[in-house]
Amino acid sequence: MADSAFFTPLSHEGILAVRGSDAGKFLQGQLTCNISYLSLEYASLGARCMVKGRMQSSFRILPEGNGYLLAMASELLEPQLADLKKYAVFSKATLTDESAAWARFGLQGGAGALQALGLDLPPAPGSTVRHDGLIAITVSAERSELWIPVAQAADVRQRLAATLPEGCLNDWLLGQIRAGIGQVMGPTREFFIPQMINLQAVDGVSFKKGCYTGQEIVARMQYLGKLKRRQYRLALAQQEAPAPATPIFSPTHGSSVGEVVLAASAGNECELLAVLSAEAVEDDNLHLGSLEGPRLQLLTLPYELDRDREIQR
After folding, report:
1. Distance between CA 241 and CA 211 in Å, rounded?
2. Would the pTM of this model clear 0.85, i.e. be above it?
3. Can you tell me the distance from the alpha carbon of 250 to that of 248, in angstroms, rounded to the nearest whole number?
């Protein structure tokens, strides 16, 4: 079903809400993305870093009502709330877990189903349309998210099921991997700076917005540093998908050279995103879990890293 049209609940994520008159100003000083770019027609990827530039969370963020909603891995929500609340004490901003207030579905090839709900969604990533309380967001080619107030969830799910088969979360994550969109999960919290998962290549980092927590490290890496580790897409000849943070080894180097970011089954094999040493990738001798583990095959990503384009955002 990974290549077919389907919908599936996004049960792996929760929603952090930041609301109040200072919500935008507060978040602008905390996140990698530019809050000024967000609108009713545009949502963004982004991350929240610690002072040393390592990501505590990554998310999709959109304006809603008197604030903003951030969808992130469920296991990150509580620690991210706790950390952000320490910085919000002098702001007119309230931070809460609104996971129970919303139902979210991922749709692949679901343009017709969305149109039946009054949502005619443009194809550009981040494009957002709203109708009758529903919010639809383009996340990558032929893939979209549908956000539904919980009171409407049962009816909308029934309408989706009338036109689309229900798939599984694994197939949704496989599409995310093929789109090259990395994500911080519980085991990889504070592992990576944003450029290591190519977040700047998918409009999740702004280099024109000014200061935010971790900005000095992120900007220095973009302008002055040479990124020695970044995200790649790979295939593995086994059905079972490895967990995030599983180490990847290079016998050539005799050591671990990276970690799994996200993985999903793909028929008789699996595909994954991993942050790896560029030097080890050039050697093309990568093994999962140990020096003697199953060998990984390098696959392509649907975008190129382009520093000149990235710093214009």
Report:
1. 38
2. yes
3. 7
